[in-house]
Write a structure and sequence with these properties.
Layout (H helix, E strand, L loop, with lengths): L5 E3 L11 H12 L3 E5 L4 E4 H17 L7 E5 L4 H13 L2 E4 L6 H11 L3 E4 L2 E2 L2 E2 H8 L8 E4 H13 L3 H9 L6 E6 L9 E5 H14 L7 E3 L7 H12 L4 E4 L6 H11 L3 E4 L1 H8 L14 E4 L6 H9 L5 E7 L6 E4 L6 H6 L3 E2 L3 E6 L13 E7 L5 E2 L3 H7 L6 E9 L5 E6 L4 E3 L2 E3 L1 H9 L4 E11 L3 E10 L7 H8 L11 E4 L13 H11 L3 H7 L2
Parallel strand pairs: 2-13, 4-5, 4-6, 5-10, 6-9, 12-13, 12-14, 14-15, 15-16, 27-28
Antiparallel strand pairs: 1-19, 2-3, 7-8, 10-11, 11-21, 16-17, 17-18, 19-20, 20-22, 22-23, 24-25, 26-27
């Protein structure tokens, strides 16, 4: 009988049964004089004892301004030290932190504030070319729940002074009533289809996920973790901050947003032992003309997640960037986020060809997307996950929650995956990304991996575009390495005889950059829209989707 594609992350290490504040208190008791947070662009450094005191002042300041347990506190800012303080301050008073994407504009901001019922908004004056204060002024009259705002550059010190006027016993009283299953965080999904949905997460979910992330990369109080990924996303605030604070490691922030030179300088000067990023970030560092100037010898580990990683990139990160213990993680916001991870010491082919095995205390299965039945190992289907990490639900959206989480509490990820005999999982694509050409199922990831083996290709992204004859055709967007010159015919010839003819892209587009989300994920929906328009396929699109 075939072995089913099901795996349970049995673990001898128990889940943490405490709130984020309680966990931070324990870390402070152990490592109070250790460096907790370094934010280079602000010249900010603090120990764990100082972080505890600062988060307590901010927490009491919010109490003094009437923020109650379960109230929604929004934060709209790039990576700054205040973001980290607010993350722990809101957790300590039981307020629900609403992460607002730094790239949001007026309509998205208005939607997030109203959908979450945010009553108190903490914001920067702006970010890059965006005027946050101007945008807020434009929408505030249409946000009836928003009663107070705090601008970091103008009002932060006043909040801390307000905190000094509130007794520490008042904060202790609030903390004593908090439960680890309380909702503590709302994170909005990217909203590639319809309006964004607010994944609602508890202390228990994100604290334990962060803790086991740290366990997986063997963090101790001696680790210094370079975090160039955004705080508003799980990658920054869970894989980054909570993984560190649950182990006494140092959070090191290179810049407000990703900049390859700032990251490389940070690793060298702060002697970082771990580096995070999505694959495009690592590619940006490896391909940078100044890469050879920097010393990466302090690194030993790191995390690559958020998007499929080309095999060749992983090999270079392990060798050229001196990260032999780098791990791949897979997950989604709705699962706090990690569900699988490659392990230090895994064989190379498992480290570079899979996203590892099931996470501690989590279950995964791969099912036929039509019938819902568990598939035999080796067959592709939809990846589902269940356990402590699955979100409470989408905030105020029961219908969307029911569509995502079934009656048995399985979260349906929408990702296509295969599980091998040893339980390693390979992501082969997205249900929505899968291309069906003349009845053949084509997974873009396979073609992308192959194109990346060409010496002159820096990155490649594959999409399906409408075809009257086949339903869909394969198209590749290609980013070449500096100084390289290739045509679509060159790459088609490279593919010939090496991948099936129906997988060879019919259309090619050479670009300097891909349309990206702020977290570094490629926006394939936007790529498809651009391609359809440029190729004059509107009519075909209407026919093929009718």
């Amino acid at each position: 009988m075939a072995v089913p594609s099901y795996s349970h992350g049995a673990s001898s290490i128990p889940l943490l049964g405490e709130t984020i504040g309680e966990n931070l208190r324990r870390t402070v008791e152990k490592f109070g004089d250790g460096e907790a947070l370094v934010v280079r662009q602000q010249g900010f450094r603090c120990t764990y004892k100082e972080l505890w005191e600062l988060s307590g002042r901010a927490a009491r300041g919010l109490l003094g301004r009437g923020v109650g347990r379960g109230d929604r506190v929004g934060i709209w800012a790039p990576n700054r030290y205040e973001w980290v303080v607010v993350q722990y301050a809101t957790a300590r008073i039981g307020a629900i932190l609403v992460n607002i994407n730094p790239n949001y504009r007026t309509s998205e901001l208005e939607y997030a504030l109203n959908q979450s019922g945010t009553g108190f908004l903490i914001l920067a004056k702006g970010f890059r070319n965006a005027d946050y204060m101007g945008m807020l002024a434009e929408v505030r009259g249409r946000c009836p729940n928003l009663r107070a705002t705090l601008v970091l550059e103008d009002d932060w010190e006043a909040l801390l002074r307000d905190g000094d006027k509130v007794a520490e016993s008042d904060l202790a009283e609030r903390e004593s009533h908090l439960q680890f299953d309380d909702a503590i965080n709302i994170q909005y999904t990217s909203g590639t289809t319809g309006f964004p949905k607010g994944a609602t997460l508890s202390h228990h979910m994100i604290l334990n996920n962060g803790y086991f992330i740290g366990e997986g990369v063997h963090y101790t109080e001696h680790d210094r973790v370079c975090i160039p990924v955004p705080f508003y996303h799980c990658f920054g605030m869970v894989l980054g901050n909570l993984a560190c604070t649950s182990h006494g490691s140092t959070m090191v922030i290179p810049a407000e947003a990703f900049d390859p030179v700032a990251v490389m300088e940070c690793v060298q000067e702060e002697k970082c032992t771990s580096l995070y990023g999505v694959p495009t970030m690592f590619i940006g560092e490896l391909d940078h003309p100044r890469f050879s100037e920097f010393d990466f010898s302090s690194l030993r580990t790191g995390i690559m997640a958020g998007a499929p990683c080309p095999v060749e990139v992983m090999k270079k990160v392990k060798s050229t960037m001196h990260m032999p213990e780098v791990t791949i993680m897979y997950g989604m916001t709705e699962t706090s986020p990690v569900s699988t991870q490659s392990a230090i010491g895994d064989p190379l082919e498992k480290q570079v060809g899979t996203v590892g095995r099931v996470y501690p205390h989590v279950e995964i299965k791969i099912v036929d997307q039509a019938s819902g039945e568990i598939l035999p190992r080796g067959e592709p289907g939809e990846l589902c996950t269940r356990g402590y990490s699955v979100m409470l639900g989408y905030w105020n959206n029961e219908e969307a929650t029911r569509q995502a989480i079934d009656a048995a509490r399985w979260m349906h990820t929408g990702d296509l995956a295969e599980m091998d005999e040893e339980g390693y999982v390979k992501i082969v694509g997205r249900l929505k990304d899968m291309i069906i050409r003349g009845g053949e199922n084509i997974y873009p990831r396979e073609i992308e991996e192959f194109l990346y083996t060409h010496a002159d290709v820096s990155d490649a992204q594959v999409i399906g575009i409408p075809s009257e004859k086949y339903g869909e055709e394969v198209m590749a967007w290609v980013k070449l390495k500096p100084g390289a010159s290739l045509t679509g015919d060159d790459l088609a010839a490279f593919c010939k005889g090496k991948i099936a003819s129906y997988k060879v892209p019919r259309h090619w587009k050479f670009v300097d950059e891909f349309p990206m989300t702020v977290t570094g994920k490629v926006r394939k929906v936007e790529m498809r829209d651009v391609s359809v328009k440029e190729l004059g396929l509107e009519a075909a699109a209407a026919i093929s989707t009718a």
